[in-house]
Give the backbone structure.
Amino acid sequence: MKRDDFERLNEAQRARGAKTFANPRNAAAGALRLLDPRESKKRRLHFFAYGLGEVQGWAVPATHSGVLDALAGFGVPVNADRAVVRGAAGLVDYHQRIAARRDALPFDIDGVVYKVNDRALQERLGFVTREPRWAVAHKYPAQEQMTRLLGIDIQVGRTGKLTPVAKLEPVFVGGTTVSNATLHNEDEARRKDVRIGDTVIVRRAGDVIPEVVGVVADRRPPDAGEPFDLYQRLGGKCPVCASPIERLEGEADWRCTGGITCPAQRKQALLHFASRRAMDIEGLGDKLVDQLVDAGIVKTVPDLYRLGFTALAALERMGEKSATNLLAGIDKSKSTTLARFLYSLGIRQVGETTAKDLARHFGSIERLMDARLEELLEVLDVGPIVAQSIRHFFDQPHHRELVAQLQAAGIHWPEVAGQASDAPRPLLGKTLVLTGTLPTWSRDEAKERIEAAGGKVSGSVSKKTHFVVAGEEAGSKLDKARELGVPVIDEAGLRALLDEPAADNPPLS
Ligand SMILES: [Zn+2]
């Protein structure tokens, strides 16, 4: 039974509430035991010819490989992965070649078989009881084994995902000793109905992490545990940071809502915080975050703003120059916008656009943190799930504490009037397209300003575009604008629309 046919069979079984099979071997054996051959046929079993039975009226080739080639020529299915080799070295080499491809084969194998090729020699060697002396199997390490489930731990991943992990009586499988195996998520654990004390089948194939594929139902002890319930197991709290956990409708995973303040999510949160569209800290990438966290120098986001030159320069591969540059990058990030700051907090469901909408609507972090659900729902494109997620985030005192610490560290942003006020929004209802390089504003800066003025930035020019803002080396969008007769303006024209002074003419105040 091919692996994909096996998966399909299990899916169908699941869909009609029937028992699933632990592996293709069990499923194939089950298919052969079915009383109705039409049902067996539906299971899509395959067959490879590997030898001869009774032969009449055919001059059988002198070698085993010749027989298989002839069978293939007749149209009988024969495994294509066969080879004629010489000596022990040839056999070992073949064994290794197939091992390297084992996981990529469309079906499971547990080894290869060596056969003497010369059929006359086969006959001379003969059999010992039913075992041929001219053929021997060379197995691979088993990829599945049975063992006992001792307990279920819950791990918190880098993104806050909670994964149930089976604690097992150590077992040798897939060439190594395995004592932990993933159960993927709550639904999977329930579907397999794993209970503590059960005998389970563990699979480890190739580099894939070991997983529990099923339970040996008739070996369940009378004192086996209760059906798995992740929420109950954790008392509703993240095992690392004690924040409430949640599982959204339509999602398979429970998650820790601690986000940026959960130590398990630290590295991910720092990377997100420092990313270009968030606080944009130049020089703070993957490797450095790993180093800072692993060395215990940075535990929380505000720690970034307490970094000193000495601690940084002492890090491996960190020269004086990069330390200075990083500190400058961190310092520069202190001056930001409310939208960027909100986005950098990594609140679930709050992407860049939502962060901008929230900043524009509320104007201040305090007003947002205190906003009631109904108030949040007034924001354009904010639905109940997003509103709930924001509320959830700021209901946790450690998140408010974090905001306070970051502000105390010097992070600031220009006052935004907020939609409730009468601040002019000169571009309300207008769609603009940016193309080329503007003399003083980056693409992101121009976009931010247009959006703050109520306008929308689109990626392509159409008849509905109100203005195309073109800079140096403007491309096909400019041609398109001319073709459609859309007004084209430059940065100065955009500033005029926004009611902002020209770049070389700063305000006096
Ligand atoms: Zn947590």
Observations:
- Residues 9 and 64 are 35 Å apart (CA to CA).
- The longest strand covers residues 144-156.
